[in-house]
Every structure is written in C-alpha cells, then in structure tokens.
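forwarding from the other thread:

> can someone predict this with iron/sulfur cluster?

sure thing
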Amino acid sequence: MNAKEIVVISGKGGSGKTSLSASFAYLEAKNAIIADCDVDAANMHILLGADFEKQEDFMSGEVAVISEDLCTNCGDCYNVCRFDAITKMDDFHKVDPIACEGCWYCSRVCGHGAIEMLTQKAGDVFVSNIKNNGKMVHAKLGFAAENSGKLVSQVKMKAKELAQNLQKEFIVVDGSPGIGCPVISSLSGAMVAVLVTEATVSGLHDLKRVQQLVKTFHIRSCCIINKADLNTERANEIEEFCKKENIEVIAKLPYDITFTKAMSEAKPIVEFDEKSEVSNLIKESWEKIKELARK
Ligand code: SF4
Ligand code: SF4
C-alpha cells in the first residue's frame, strides 16, 4: 500500500501553515509519517518534540578548491571567475566556497591541474521520533547553501521509504511557502493539497498563484481560511474564488490567540488546548482532508 501524501501549502509565509500542519501531524502521528519540507525555515520539529534520532548528510553542488602546492599564481582562474569567488594571495590563489557557484570554468582553464571540484555537504536530513509515538523526517539546509528543491525531494523520498516500511496510511507534508522550486518538489506525488490562506488582499493574491501551480499537477485541493473573521469582505472574496475553482473551503478559522500561545509553549494547537473552538475546527478539518485523500 502506498501512503497517501497530503501537502499543506500557502502562497505566503505567516498564514498559519506550520501551526496547522503540526496539529494535523499530532492528530495523525500514529498512522502517518510527517515530513517537514519547509527546509529553508524548518521549525515544525520544535512543536513536535523531535529527538533527532538519525542523521544523514545532504550532499549537493560542487565547489572549486585550489591546491596551494600546485598553484603557480598565474591568475588565469581569477580572470575568468564571473562570481568574484577567487582571491589573489601572495603565493597562490584561493576560492571563497560561499561565493563559488561550482561552474567549473576555473578548473577548465587552470593549466596546472591545481583546481579540484568537490561535492560539498549542503545540509542534514534527520529522522526523529515525535510526540504521540510518531516519526518525522526533517532537514536543515547549511548556511548560504542552495538547492532546497533537491533537499525537499530527499526528505520526501525518506518519508516515503519509512511510510512503506512501517505501513503508514498517510504522509503529512508541511510544504514550503511561495511557488518556487521547493514547493514544486513538495507537491510532486501528492494526493491532496491543503491551501492555507488568510483573509487579506495578499492572502487572496497568493492563493491564486499557488492554486495555479496545484492545477498543473492535477492534485485535489481544499482551502482553510485563517483569521477569517478579521476581514469578512476578503474572506467572502476568497470563498468566491474557491467556488469558481471548485475548491472546497473546509474551514474558516477565527482569529484566536491560542495560535500564538501554543507556539510560545512549543506545542501544536490541538495539544496546547484540545477543547478550544479552534482545536475543534482543526480536528473537523483534518477528518475532511482524510476523507478527500481516501476518495
Ligand atoms: S589558474 Fe591554476 S595555477 Fe593559475 S592561479 Fe589559478 S589555480 Fe593557480
Ligand atoms: S567554479 Fe566557477 S564560480 Fe567557482 S571559483 Fe571556479 S569559476 Fe568561480
């Protein structure tokens, strides 16, 4: 049995996506593998009490390294590097690994075989035990490291492998915000996309962009409008848009200080105050999402 992937995304940050993902993860921990694919700002592991049980290196991209012994200081590499990654020193040249884009140009022009291109470690992938006897896969991208789309795909592959081995029904994915490469990676292979937005002009604007992306993948989607009572006019506009696009609005969450309080206690909302109105709405939403994934 292949696990059904449910991806929680939003067109913008700050819409409550991770708070909701963490609550879904907490509710379904026993029957799902959780994947934090918001690798540029991963923090769901904090809410879920991850124990960092296993670690693997994420290798990605190449960087030029100059051998001090072989370099004759001719300057040819310095002259061709378009990224100003090479510095002249007294006796040899040196590469700044952060500025280096790994284009290989310097290595090709060096007539002395002094430049080696090395694959570098760009981050870490972790498998952790979490609250409610669950397991999650999460990652940390290194400083100034790129290729977060590739890292997302590694996190998802690991989550799929675990779901298969442990016979879990779902993979709950906290996707990246926006519409770039990491989000595209988050969505690939998904069964349901949960679009989280808030009742603002930018919320609607970004929802439209992200829905365009979801459509190209032919993924079933539903929508949660967060802080819907703060601007009912915008919330209505979002509902109209969803109706036109055939997206079910599964919840309109009111503004609730519980979101912030739960965050400050490092807990998912449904753990922090399981009987609050917002927790009940989140639980109902999760049941609807599972139903959609099982169709
Ligand atoms: S091209 Fe090669 S030999 Fe010349 S400065 Fe660069 S590394 Fe040194
Ligand atoms: S690999 Fe490209 S970016 Fe890196 S130092 Fe060489 S020329 Fe510059």
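The CA atoms of residues 149 and 182 lie 4 Å apart. thats all i got for now
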